Amino acid sequence: MADCLFCRIIAGEIPADVVAETESALAFRDVNPQAPLHVLVVPRAHVANAAELADTDPATVAELVRVARQVAVDAGYENYRTVFNTGEEAGQSVFHAHLHVLAGRRLAWPPG
Ligand code: 5GP
Ligand code: ZN
To answer: 38, 46, 96, 98: which one is catalytic?
Structure first.
């Protein structure tokens, strides 16, 4: 999708600090980090959200979760939070599915 920010990052048209990649997923640092480690793990193929990815390509949902673990462990964190925001009211601002990986500070619950 030409007008999708994360598709453009995947295509290399917009620079990103990539920390991990697999055949189906790319992980890069969030430009506005909310924790010492804040990475976004995205499917290479465009889908709007996590549930749509589960419908069309469930193996890649599992891949995102595995890559999230790898990114956290490689950064030295055994404790980390993974978040999929779905819909504007839930905080989704980029409508290409992405798994947030946050670590490096105590994370409160419930989230804001
Ligand atoms: P959402 O709000 O959709 O759950 O998450 C989108 C995330 O993308 C936000 O945390 C935001 O900081 C991040 N983001 C927005 N634009 C860019 C960008 O150009 N590069 C990177 N690396 N992250 C971005
Ligand atoms: Zn996209």
So the answer is: 98
